[in-house]
Amino acid sequence: MLSFNTSLSPNSNAFALFVSEKYEYKDPRSILSKDTSKKVNLFLRSLKEKSQKDEISSFDISEKKKCFIIKIKAKHEKSYFEEVGGSFYTYVKSYKTINLIDIYADSLNDDKEKLCKNFSEFIFGVNLKSYTFNKYKTSKKEKIGSNVECKIVTINKKSIENNYKYYSSIKEGIFLTRDLVSEPPNILNPKTYVQEIKKLSKLGLKIKAYNEKELKKLGLNALLGVGLGSDNETYLVTIEWNGKKGSKEKPLAFVGKGVCFDTGGISLKPPRFMEEMKYDMAGSAVVVGLLKSLALRKAKINAVGVVGLVENMPGGKAQRPGDIVKSYSGKTIEILNTDAEGRLVLADALSFTEKKYKPKFIIDLATLTGAIIMSLGEEYAGLFSNDDELSENIFQSSKNVNEKVWRLPLHKNYDKLMNSTIADVQNINYVGGAGAITAAQFLQRFILNKTPWAHLDIAGMAFSKKAANLNPGGATGFGVRLLNNLVKEYYE
Ligand code: BES
Ligand code: ZN
Ligand code: ZN
């Protein structure tokens, strides 16, 4: 919810003003008092003289009030205003005492349409950065945090509210993704995850959860094999959004890896940082968050999300290295390493999605390999695709929203490395090297009908100990904005 004002509040501890690169600002209704604008002009002159490079600066307008100056570039990238919003929030937070701030939206531009769009993006950035996950803090002080309340000073309330609706639906999706990824693995297991997803049916999403009995009957044995060592039941959930009512148009399909915890199974992981493997369900959380956003903004498309939810544990019934499973596609898989479980989950989820929905395309997301972190670190997600057009669209969208992806190759020579001596395919490559690529080659074998497909390996992007401009650290929600933009720009 945005909160508005038509003039500066007497009790705020700060106000923010947008200025151009030439340090000029608009005050269309002269809401700044003579004294205030005099002080502002003096400060702006000093910034100009110093040819101050900083985007944001501030000074004390009185003992009780600060003034923040946000300098806006004339030429900028598409996601510029969001980034400025993020930087602004970080800057304001560095002043611990500020809790109520007036942001003078109308100082941004005199073109009303531009103003409302750009300002909505700015607030979107502020909100993304202000996310917190503190439900497990018991001290009141930490729970409430030192949140900053922003009041928007404008005469364009209706128009900003209308513009912001779109961004708010994306924000809600991202926050859901972040919440799900942040939950500890004793709370978010496949069953409780299903319950969370089912809550979304009130938005008009059609949700079906397949339990183990149903999955067995259907033959999703690659997925089921991963869950054998866990006491928690495995599920596959489909989430359908029918935004193009009455149309038989093929849906866009999004598939996510939802390993609620990845111990590695019998091929057990070393203890150091194993706790991070709670975020091994991030791919699925992006799919869930994306579908929430699409439903909230009533996107005029048909889409389906499919997530495989499972826990990879080393129990007495666990799958062993050496086991062979028959996947939903009919292909047999030799399990050489039980820690390469994400691809087993996706193998069945991909073939199932392709067969059941005959989608226009399938995009899967997964925290699939450590190898992608070796290649691209925490800057780019790995993109793999069998289709140049789909790949190019994803790449352009990634630039539009500054969620960066980099395409890596698929090639028959990598594919060969996944041939098993006694089954159709093996789940790891023993030659060594190209770990993210061979994982993608494995996935490609489960696209049976040449459906345009792309795989995003988000292992380096889903979670970060460091804060970034649009998130406070922890779960990032990477992928929701990217895929929402893809839908909006190319398929809606
Ligand atoms: N969940 C991991 C991948 C991962 C690693 C995600 C680090 C996020 C951070 C995946 O299931 C895995 O264990 N992959 C193995 C594959 C290997 C056994 C071929 C890996 O990358 O080491
Ligand atoms: Zn693993
Ligand atoms: Zn995993």
Summary of the model, kept short:
This protein has 492 residues and is of the alpha/beta class. Helix content is 37%, strand content 20%.
Beta content comes to 15-25%
Small-molecule binders: ligand BES, zinc ion
The mean pLDDT is: 96
Strand order of the largest sheet: 7-8-10-9-13-17-14-15
Give the low-confidence spans: none
| Count of DSSP-assigned helices | 15
Major sheet, described briefly? 8 strands, mixed
Shape: elongated
End-to-end separation in angstroms reads 27 Å
Structural classification: alpha/beta
Helical residue percent band: 25-40%
Number of strands: 19
| Radius of gyration, in angstroms, nearest whole number | 25 Å
Features:
alpha/beta; binds zinc ion; elongated; eight-stranded mixed β-sheet; binds ligand BES
Tell me about this structure:
This protein is α/β, with parallel strands linked by helices. It contains 15 helices and 19 strands. The strands form 4 sheets. Strands 7-8-10-9-13-17-14-15 form an 8-stranded mixed beta sheet, sandwiched between helices. Strands 1-6-5-2-4-3 form a 6-stranded mixed beta sheet, with helices on both faces. Helix 5 packs antiparallel against helix 9 (282-296). Bound molecules: ligand BES and zinc ion (2 copies). One zinc ion (ZN) is lined by residues 262, 264, 339, 341.
